[in-house]
Amino acid sequence: MVTVVKISGNVIDNPVFLQAFLRDFALLPGPKVLVHGGGKLATQLAERLDVPQTMVEGRRITDAETLKIAVMSYAGWINKNVVAGLQAQGCNAMGFCGADGNMLRAVKRPVASIDYGWVGDIVPENVHIQLISQLFELGITPVFSAITHDGAGQLLNTNADTIAAVTAIAISRVRPCRLLLCFEKKGVLRDVENPESLISVIRSEEWAALKASGVVHSGMLPKLDNAFAAIVQGVQSVSIMHAADLVAVANGGNAGTILMA
Amino acid sequence: MVTVVKISGNVIDNPVFLQAFLRDFALLPGPKVLVHGGGKLATQLAERLDVPQTMVEGRRITDAETLKIAVMSYAGWINKNVVAGLQAQGCNAMGFCGADGNMLRAVKRPVASIDYGWVGDIVPENVHIQLISQLFELGITPVFSAITHDGAGQLLNTNADTIAAVTAIAISRVRPCRLLLCFEKKGVLRDVENPESLISVIRSEEWAALKASGVVHSGMLPKLDNAFAAIVQGVQSVSIMHAADLVAVANGGNAGTILMA
């Protein structure tokens, strides 16, 4: 079983949480992939460099200067520190953006009503699964930052959740694969005010009813829709969990909310 | 024959030169490694971020903020753009710092009369030659930025010429290897004012006499001393050449000044 783990930005922002997370991640058995988001570094850097950030409908527009900041932050400082931290834990990590080995080839998002700038969209067919498998055979743990390329020399900013999902889908075509989405919440709660109300398992046939019942918090809806879409495309299970609970998975158990077919 | 190419910062700073260089590099036959310097990006970024740069005896001190800038610039923006550019030329490049796959493990420079800060020194024994060979077997061209790690989670700023030399020495222990040092001059000149006075070959037994004669320009001395040191340690030849002349080597010829045993 291959494990693809997505770690969100707010875990990366806290050095103590990050170290603990990397220690737990290093303990996960079997081949694994880490995909990391950006955290606050890019935003802080943009402020210090006086590069105005344009948001349209809640999404950041990636102009040329913003792309540079994203590449420096995600593929540079964060990626290399995560790799160095994993190496210190005995995990033979290698840090990548999608241009490396042409592993994540994307398409610049077409300009429709909104021009998102240097943003790339990626499908599972453009994940270089053969090379990722060869790296697994060498005992390498790939660590992907949320930067892809178009194959013609252009780097592109790409959503880290999407990279994690398409990578897991692509891997699941050759080997069983699970996806763990780690963030700062326990999982899917029946009552968002009560952390004890965790739903531990949601099967795909239950999802429509649960969604219709209004029990699932609106912010969680797209996450779960995407998770079930990944399951339909072959991913064995998707867990939505607190980063601090990864240790339970490393010890062979489950944590958070596990979604499955 | 494996070719290790070092490209200096002032070639990287010019996008037109860089594109031409990457096109020529992609044409080089056989397994190859690219090591790149930093260029002006880190200096410009330090200025824009108001991070003062301290020079002692002509060498930059790497404090924590300067390390961050170096990692973002070298291992981030430059490395990933070089890789994306090589991919566009059909060269299956992967960009690394030394933490990736533990390929370049360094030791923080001990504090003597000068504290250089987060600077690492590396020896050929700490180049992970087995993994580099395995990447060659996968058809991968490693592209190294001048950042290493200490194996305990700390990234370190490291001289790109040194990385190129120790990597070539390490490779030469398992396969024949040559080193090409590409910069903005034709090679070693008998008369620094006359570009036609290029010395095309220097054999190691000629080097002491040539050095004593005062013919070789002082700025070139450490470069040549280091080159002959690499040759003593097994590197087949070291060429000192203009980046624009790489195409001659790609076509099976020689360029610049070639140093050999």
Task: List strands and helices in order, with pairings.
2 copies of one chain form a homodimer.
Chain A: E1 2-7, H1 9-12, H2 15-27, E2 32-36, H3 41-48, E3 55-56, E4 59-60, H4 64-88, E5 93-96, E6 107-108, E7 120-121, H5 129-137, E8 141-144, E9 147-149, E10 155-157, H6 160-172, E11 177-183, E12 201-203, H7 204-213, H8 221-232, E13 237-242, H9 246-250, E14 257-260
Parallel strand pairs in A: 1-2, 1-11, 2-8, 5-8, 11-13, 12-14
Antiparallel strand pairs in A: 3-4, 6-7, 9-10, 13-14
Helix pairs in contact in A: 3-4, 6-8
Q: Would you mind describing this structure in some detail?
A:
The structure is a homodimer of 261-residue chains. Chain A has 261 residues and is of the alpha/beta class. In chain A, 38% of the residues lie in helices and 20% in strands. The first copy, chain A, has 9 helices and 14 strands. In chain A, strands 5-8-2-1-11-13-14-12 form an 8-stranded mixed β-sheet, with helices on both faces. In chain A, strands 3-4 form a two-stranded antiparallel sheet. In chain A, strand 3 and strand 4 form a beta hairpin. In chain A, helix 3 (41-48) packs across helix 4. At the A-B interface, helix 4 and strand 5 of A face helix 4 and strand 5 of B.
